[in-house]
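Q: I'm building a small set of examples for a reading group on sequence design. Run inverse folding on the following structure and report the sequence directly after it, with nothing in between.
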């Protein structure tokens, strides 16, 4: 039997879609800038056609190998990924194809906007706090069997409350290290965020995730990016606050970034959780206390010696007054009885 000759649409970048364009039950509102020059598609805000109070973010993908890989990954793990619940993580809830054959993904909810275009508007401390939030969200993802295989700054958003929101298209199941056939799904990412062992064909791991988070931290903090000619400053003013740090602050942060992006996985910071603790320490915040550790009472500031004597003197005086009152109450009936005439 002769197989039919199937012709697929040629690769093409996603063409701009107009406001009101219908994608299933969703209507596009406007495109959202993500700050990435070479990205797999275009983000849009959208509103439900019937329940207009319901909103969503829509990613219309290019017709490319990467776009096809995103859709294959979603088809493979959509049911399990929908169970991942965290206020700082959004996952796709639906998918489809536009009239001109571009695949798209729907992420229901109000997610805000991509963070990268707004990065220079934030203070350095705010950026580091957002990174801590991201690492803590990934802690929950790890507990549910997921890791962030690809780090893409366009997938890091700022929600309406000013918190981080991970658009979790790069999440994948943590591969089983004992299964030689479980290599994990990988769609590739920007070269600056790929760990050396991943470039050599190794599966994604918690160590490669830390490398990508370190590269993201470098962009957020220093405003650097990888180019064919090496490191270069971002076009935005994201790195302008780095020179204003004290030398001790720069040294500590530089050591932190180098540890997260060490060439050898064994030398890197231990997981996103460890990176969160180090960033929190840099911020001057206390690390989270273990649930099993008893809470220690807060130290009290000793009062000056004269204040202690003053309080002791006041307490002693009140005690003497109370004693005198009791003696008077006891003596008064006796005296009155002696004053009564005898019958």
């Amino acid at each position: 039997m002769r197989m039919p000759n199937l012709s697929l649409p040629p690769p093409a970048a996603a063409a701009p879609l107009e406001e009101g364009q219908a994608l299933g039950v969703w209507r596009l509102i406007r495109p959202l800038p993500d700050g990435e020059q070479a990205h797999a598609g275009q983000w849009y805000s959208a509103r439900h056609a019937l329940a207009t109070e319901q909103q969503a973010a829509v990613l219309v993908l290019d017709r490319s190998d990467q776009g096809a890989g995103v859709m294959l990954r979603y088809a493979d793990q959509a049911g399990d990924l929908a169970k991942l619940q965290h206020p700082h993580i959004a996952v796709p809830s639906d998918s489809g194809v536009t009239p001109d054959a571009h695949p798209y993904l729907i992420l229901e909810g109000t997610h805000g906007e991509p963070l990268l275009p707004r990065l220079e508007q934030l203070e350095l401390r705010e950026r580091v706090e957002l990174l801590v939030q991201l690492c803590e969200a990934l802690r929950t993802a790890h507990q549910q069997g997921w890791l962030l295989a690809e780090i893409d700054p366009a997938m890091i958003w700022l929600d309406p409350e000013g918190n981080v929101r991970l658009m979790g298209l790069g999440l994948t199941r943590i591969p089983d290290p004992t299964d030689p056939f479980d290599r994990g799904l990988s769609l590739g990412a920007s070269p600056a965020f790929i760990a050396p062992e991943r470039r050599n064909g190794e599966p994604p791991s918690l160590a490669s995730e830390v490398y990508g988070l370190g590269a993201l931290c470098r962009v957020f903090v220093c405003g650097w990016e990888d180019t064919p000619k090496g490191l270069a400053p971002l076009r935005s003013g994201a790195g302008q606050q780095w020179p204003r740090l004290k030398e001790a602050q720069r040294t500590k942060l530089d050591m932190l970034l180098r540890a997260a992006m060490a060439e050898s996985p064994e030398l890197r910071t231990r997981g996103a959780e460890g990176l969160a603790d180090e960033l929190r320490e840099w911020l001057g915040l206390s690390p989270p206390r273990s649930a099993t550790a008893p809470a220690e009472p807060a130290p009290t500031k000793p009062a000056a010696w004269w204040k202690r004597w003053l309080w002791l003197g006041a307490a002693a005086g009140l005690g003497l007054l109370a004693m005198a009152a009791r003696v008077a109450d006891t003596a008064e009936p006796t005296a009155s009885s002696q004053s009564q005439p005898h019958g």
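DSSP finds seven helices and 14 strands in the chain.
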